[in-house]
Amino acid sequence: MQDRLVVLFHKYVNDSCSAEELAELYELFSLTGNETAAKELVAQIVEDVYQHPAQINTFLDNTAAEKIVNDILSGTPYAAINTRPTLLNSWKRWAAAATVAALLGLAGYYAYHSDNRPSPKVPASGLHIAGGSNKATLTLHNGQTIALDSAQNGLLAIQGTGRVIKTQTGEIIYSAADKSDEILYNNISTPRGGQYFLQLSDGSKVWLNAASSIRFPVVFPNGERKVYVTGEAYFEIQHQDQPIPFIVEADNKSADNNGCRVEVLGTRFNINAYSNEPFMSTTLLEGKVKVHANSTRQSRVLLPNQQLNITRKGEMNLTRPANIDAVIAWKNGYTQFASVSLSAVMRQIERWYDVNVQFEDHAADITFTGKLKRNENLSEFLKILDLNNIKYEINNSTIIIKKDQSNRDH
After folding, report:
1. For strand 306-311 and strand 316-319, is the pairing parallel, antiparallel, or unpaired?
2. How far apart are CA 360 and CA 404, in angstroms?
3. How many whole angstroms separate alpha carbon 42 and alpha carbon 65?
4. What is the pLDDT of residues 220-251, one digit of tens each?
5. Res. 102 pLDDT band, cuts 50 70 90
6. Is 144 exposed, middle or buried (0-12, 13-18, 19+ CB in 10 A)?
């Protein structure tokens, strides 16, 4: 029986459990006599996290692992983060929190389904808001608009020498029969709660996050590849026979920040230029890019695993190594946080679930670590708030984070 527990547990951590296997894991995990096996499993994962040589060379001891297991079984998994403040500070605290976050589904199950414990009281209103989906609006050069999520598959438009096709999987593909001297621009925009994928006429691929837009030529003219982005987008740039730079003009529509220009050749990178974020960020996964701050005319070359943040005053701050997994989690179907402020977390929740968030006093200063599938209902995220003793109220589609919080990291 314990062998089966081990198999299912590792499938769960690797996110490969079926619904039936997950139900079986819940049952095995709750059986009396499996506590020791569960403790060993958690201890091993904690050890694996801490063995990363670039991060830490100190392991959690068995007592700490046992504390994590006990907290999971009691429905308060994140309490373990503060058990050893001298060890778990800075990113070390994040490592422990990430380990516990991998078990969050189990913790949520015990907190909400145990017959021996009362369920946390959560306001019923607004719980069942589904996560976002693939939806966007295409605006053609003549002003015609097409709702891409409801448009039929196949040829959507012919513009000059360019064609727009919606594939059977819902992707938008641009193709060019020939180069054109006439530049015809299209625009694709996603609402809050929407995302979309498109392939440009040169073969470059773009993933748009929620509340974002991209303006681009139907067919790129000779000698230039330039697009305009608001919000957040992930790019995989196609190499050309001739080294024609690919330019992304990113604008966060802030009166005191004129945006930035990213110049690339062949590379993979993410741009976050939301107007309600404190800075614009460019994160490089592969290749090389040069980022220009329009307001100060400063520039910086990025190498892989580096992130450049540009403040509203045009100041540049480099992060290396960047947390790549967290940056592109949205593109891979997750919402992920690693020791970021609760206010930053809730901005993502606002955009993806199309809700509004308000904070009382300094509640936004709490730091938070966690990971959630983007196709999960909003109620699953609210469970995470409950498990972390974060108090809130729901008023229609507005989540109000309360001020009576303990001053600790989550």
Report:
1. antiparallel
2. 9
3. 6
4. 988 889 999 999 999 999 886 667 889 999 98
5. very low
6. exposed
Q: Which of 212, 233, 244, 237 is nearest to 327 (CA)?
A: 233
Please report, in angstroms and rounded to a whole number, the separation of the first and last CA atoms in the chain: 33
For residues 33 and 88, membership in a common domain is answered with yes
The domain boundary residue, chosen from 281, 310, 326: 326
Q: pLDDT tens digit string along 252-310?
A: 665 555 688 899 877 999 999 999 999 999 999 999 999 999 888 899 999 999 999 99
| Distance (Å, whole) CA 28 – CA 49 | 25
Last-in-domain residue among 301, 326, 351: 326
CA 377 to the chain's CA centroid: 15
Q: Tell me the one-letter amino acid at 246.
A: F
Does residue 144 fall inside a structural domain? yes
- CA distance readout (Å), 124 to 61, 99, 348, 353, 387: 40, 30, 22, 16, 17
Q: Is residue 144 domain-shared with residue 107, that is, in the same domain?
A: no
* CB atoms near residue 32 (< 10 Å): 5
Whole-model pTM: value is 0.70
Measured in whole angstroms, how far is the alpha carbon of residue 138 from the centre of its chain? 24
One domain for residues 314 and 346 = no
Instruction: Judge if 263 and 161 occupy the same domain.
Output: yes
Shared domain for 191 and 321, answered yes or no, is: yes
> In total, how many domains does the chain have?
3
Examine residue 121 and state whether it is found in any structural domain, yes or no: no
Residue 351 lies in a domain: yes
